[in-house]
Amino acid sequence: MLVLGLLLMACAAAFAGLLIAYNLSGGPDYTVTLLGSTPFTINTLGAFLGGIALTLIFGLGMWMLLAGTALARHRSKKGRRQRETARQATAERDMMADRLDERGGSTVDEAAGHRRPAMHRPQWMRSHGH
């Protein structure tokens, strides 16, 4: 939307500039010359309405440019907020896991209700230091 608005503004401004530069003669009817060709003849009312149309197209392009900029800024803020929330959640999770480990060697799985089965080693493994 940002690029499309900028392109629309540039095209409208370039077209208006070319029309003004090539058509400086006056009279009741204007023969429009654009890049060496004469595509049409226009009267005063037509020139006025054409100017209004070009202004509206330029304004639409400006609006699209500003809306695209605002949307990009909003998305950027939202992404930063989500990353910060994820960082805080990770830090809180790590802090809680450390607290659980300090209390009695329990793990995060035990805190969630998933207890590990006790590992029973045979007597011969316990006595030989394995």
Automatic annotation (TrEMBL):
Annotated region (Disordered), positions in chain: 74-130
Basic and acidic residues bias located where?
A: 82-104
Q: Keywords assigned by UniProt?
A: Membrane, Transmembrane, Transmembrane helix
Q: Where are the transmembrane segments?
A: 45-72
What protein name is recorded for this chain?
Uncharacterized protein
